[in-house]
Write a structure and sequence with these properties.
It is a single chain. By secondary structure, the protein is α+β, with helices and mostly antiparallel strands. The protein has eleven helices and twelve strands. A hairpin with a 3-residue loop joins β1 and β2. α4 packs antiparallel against α5. The chain is globular, with a radius of gyration of 19 Å. The chain starts with 10 loop residues before the first strand and ends in a 17-residue tail after the last strand.
């Protein structure tokens, strides 16, 4: 079979930050947030050129070791063959190693961009295929599902293949992330988890996870109870004591707060703007507080041209999605 043909024009892909677990939804639930990475990919005559601005500009590799490049290569192989050369430009805004899905953003950007620059790519790789491929590269589906689909997602594996359902999050949600200065590797956080947990704790989390679906989609007033967890946060707290302490302080004030992903970022979901302002005082020094919107589009192909405001003037999700502000593709662990 003949190899694929490639588009001459460059492709720009935007991918959102994500927060996984959300308390009781360990390795299953994810929320897409309005903080973005951008990547521009163009098929070249030869070689590989990678340019990086923003997060990781001084530390990330600019060769085949870059996670985004690995994702591009894996996707091109699935689509039938590699281009002669690649030019990749990244503008990274998602913090690395903080539990906000920077690795998933890079992986999803690579999958979506490779499909977009391949002629007939949409026919060769559908949305289900993109989710399966991104999950295989990442190793778990929770972050990549939210990154690809946007909104609030439930992800699972069926016979080894990743599956996901997208739900519309309640418009009243007001995500605030508290990002610490120091990163943490996902592997470190996962290494603290026990191989087994008490049955009573598993039953507790099953009930809270079910309640969380209702709370995030229709009844945010239930979020404080719905975000309680007994499966992972307490076990990981010795490695991120400041994060665990902040979660406890916020929750004692009635603010639903959880460790974002594997940490150490803290995600809070206050009920109103006034409560969001009060949280910064509770956090104290050492945290960067960001009030974010919800992302409902997921990974999107956007036009290269932007207006005077810096916002894209049109674009698509996958290859057909909404307009959005610029961002970039990271490659650090979740």
């Amino acid at each position: 079979m003949a190899g694929p043909a490639f588009r001459a024009a460059a492709v720009r892909v935007r991918t959102p930050a994500t927060s996984a677990n959300l308390g009781p939804g360990f390795d299953a639930m994810g929320l897409a947030l309005g903080l973005y990475d951008d990547v521009v990919v163009r098929v070249a005559d030869s070689g590989l050129h990678v340019d990086i601005a923003g997060e990781g500009a001084g530390t990330l590799p600019r060769d085949e070791r870059h996670l985004l490049v690995k994702s591009l290569r894996t996707t091109f192989d699935l689509l039938g063959g590699q281009p002669r050369g690649l030019e990749v430009v990244c503008a990274n805004r998602i913090p690395h190693g903080r539990g906000l899905g920077s690795s998933s953003a890079a992986i999803c950007a690579g999958v979506v961009a490779a499909r977009a620059v391949t002629t007939g790519g949409e026919a060769r790789l559908d949305e289900t295929g993109m989710l399966e491929l991104a999950s295989e590269i990442e190793g778990h589906p929770d972050n990549v599902a939210a990154c690809l689909l946007g909104g609030f997602t439930l992800a699972w594996s069926d016979g080894g293949a990743a599956r996901a359902v997208r739900l519309e999050p309640a418009a009243a949600l007001l995500p605030v992330v508290f990002v610490p200065a120091k990163p943490m590797l996902t592997e470190t956080a996962r290494g603290l988890l026990p191989r087994t947990v008490p049955h009573v704790d598993a039953a507790f989390n099953a009930g809270r996870a079910a309640l969380l679906v209702e709370a995030l989609t229709r009844r945010p007033e239930l979020l404080l109870a719905a975000t309680e967890d007994r499966l992972h946060q307490e076990y990981r707290s010795p490695a991120m004591t400041e994060s665990a302490d902040l979660v406890a302080r916020l929750r004692s004030e009635g603010v639903p707060a959880v460790i974002s992903g594997a940490g150490p970022t803290v995600l809070a979901l206050p009920a109103d703007d006034g409560e969001a302002d009060k949280m910064s005082q509770l956090a104290g020094e050492g945290w960067t507080a960001n009030r974010l919107s919800l992302d409902t589009a997921g990974a999107s192909v956007l036009p290269l041209h932007t207006g005077a405001s810096g916002e894209a003037t049109g674009g698509s999700r996958g290859t057909d999605g909404p307009d959005g502000a610029p961002g970039g593709a990271g490659s650090a662990p979740r």
